[in-house]
Amino acid sequence: MWQLMRSGWISGIRSHSIRWLLMIATAVIFIAWLAANFSARQPATVALDVGLSGIRLVLMLMALFWVQELLGKDIERKSLYFVLAYPVSRGVYLASRFFAVAALLALGVLVLGLALGAVLGVLPVSYSQPTPIHLGGAYALVLLGIWLDLLVIAAFALLLCSLSTTPFLPLILGCFFALAARSLGVSLQYLLAPGAEGTAEATYLLPVLNVAQWLLPDLSRLDWRDLSLYGLPVPWAALGWAALMALGYCGLLLALATWKFKRREFI
C-alpha cells in the first residue's frame, strides 16, 4: 500500500500541481493584501477572513482535480488494469489513492496557510485593532478544520469516480456537494432563527433541509475561523465532535466506494 501511496503522491506532484499551488499562493497573498487596504477599521481581520475563504475555495477545486488525476484518469486511460494485475486488492488501491490525495491536500493547506500567515505577519497596520487576530495555535486549528473539510469532499469525489463512467461528473457533482454541505448548517440556522417562521423560505426550504441534514455532513462545523479572527476560547468538545463527524463520514464514503469498486467491471 505504501508503494501505491508513493506513486500517487509522485503523480500528483508531477501534474504541475505544485506550480499551480505557488501561483495560487501568490494570488491569495495579493487578494488578502488588497482586502486589508480596502478595510477602514480592522484590516488584519478582513485580510484573514478573505484569505481563508480563498483557501477553502481553491483547495476544494484542487481536491477534486487530484481525485480525478489519480483515479479518474487511471480508469479513463486503462492504466488501472496494470495495477490490478498485481496481487493488490481493489480496496487497498482505492485507499492508497485517497491517502495520497489527503497528503497532497495537507501540503496545499500548509503552503497556502503559511503564505497567508506570512502576509498577515508583515501587514502594515497604522493602529491597534480592538480584537487582534491570533496566528498561533488557533490558526493551526483553523487550518486543521479546512483539511478535514477537504477530506470529506475528496472522499465524496472518490466515491463518484468509483461508479461514474463520465470523466467530469465527479468534478461537477463534487462542487455541488461541497456547496450544499458547507451551506447546510448556516441555512438551517437562518431558517430556524426567531422571525423566520412563516416566511416563504422557511415554508419551502426547511422541509428539504431537514431531510438533507440526515444525508449530508454539516461542513460549516469545520469552519473554525472565529478562533483566529477574534481570539475566542477553543470549544474542544464541539471541535472534537465535528472532527469525528468528518472522519466518520469519510470512512462511510470510502466503504461505499470500496464496495462499489470491487463489483465494477472494467472493459
TrEMBL record:
The name this protein goes by in its record: ABC transporter permease
Gene source species: Corticibacter populi
Keyword vocabulary terms for this entry: Membrane, Transmembrane, Transmembrane helix
Taxonomy, superkingdom: Bacteria
Keyword Manganese among record annotations: no
Ranges annotated as spanning the membrane: 20-40, 46-67, 102-125, 137-159, 171-192, 236-259
